[in-house]
Amino acid sequence: MIEVKNLIFEYPTKRALHDVSCEIKTGSITALVGPNGAGKTTLIRCIVGLHGPFSGQVLFDGVDVHEHPRDCHRRMAYLSDFFGVYDQLTVRQCLTYTARAYGVSGDQVRTVVEAAAQRLNLTDRLREKAGALSRGLRQRLAIAQAIVHEPEFLVLDEPASGLDPEARQSLSMLLIGLRDAGMTLLVSSHILAELEGYCTDMLIMREGRIIDSRKLAGELTDARRLRIDLAAPSGDLLGLLEKTDGVAQPSVGDEVATLLFSGDMVAQQALLRRLVEAGIPVAALREDRIALQDAYIAQIHEYDSGKTRT
Q1: N or C: which end of the chain has fewer CB within 10 A?
Q2: Cα separation of 40 and 206, whole Å?
Q3: In angstroms, how far apart are the furthest CA atoms of the chain?
């Protein structure tokens, strides 16, 4: 969906992006992570066409965002880390104003407003003034405004900032729901543990560069990453896994084996039974999510160590 090619952006006294290239795939929720000053917000603003790069391209389904910004803006949405709502307007009025600003035709405004309110669980708040809403509800209203024109691509910069734990959990479920409804999302945040719960891909930035791009979910549709803890090394395990339906990318060590598994929980139980019956010394079989924070810290240290060596 989004392809960034050799992007360079410069402020008057500093180069913020150094030849950045990356890809955001349709149907993904991509985490954009990195320390303060890494260039995340600058990259985001270039992607949505608010900053014009010194050189390079941002393509949205093959269309250059900076050459055809209006066409692209109709199909995308952006919510910055600092956002505002009109405190004296009701929720309905805020959404109606935004829908009209996006060019939604008059006979469709009511429909899209109510659809956005329903998605964000704001239907019972439509008559309330935005200024009377809690921080979490104002966040929901801001996201509803962003998606009221039903975009295909949604970009959120620090969406969980200032939210309490319950509101953050609610936000996570909301973003998963938007992805399931067909949206592609790019989310920048410092709260790595929460990103891990719903993101499918990760881009790591440091000093204006993309230093790593990785997939957090399995390559197979609905695949889960499983971990097998072994009580002793097993030379037969790899061959057995390679011959098992639903298993991909098996990796076997002396104490731990990992694999991608496309089966359900019943199939997982059958896999465990097969391993035990084959005499594999299985101590535990469990889902093994990639720890986003561990991967992030390891990659940052690797990048810094490489700079020190050179």
Answers
A1: C
A2: 9
A3: 70
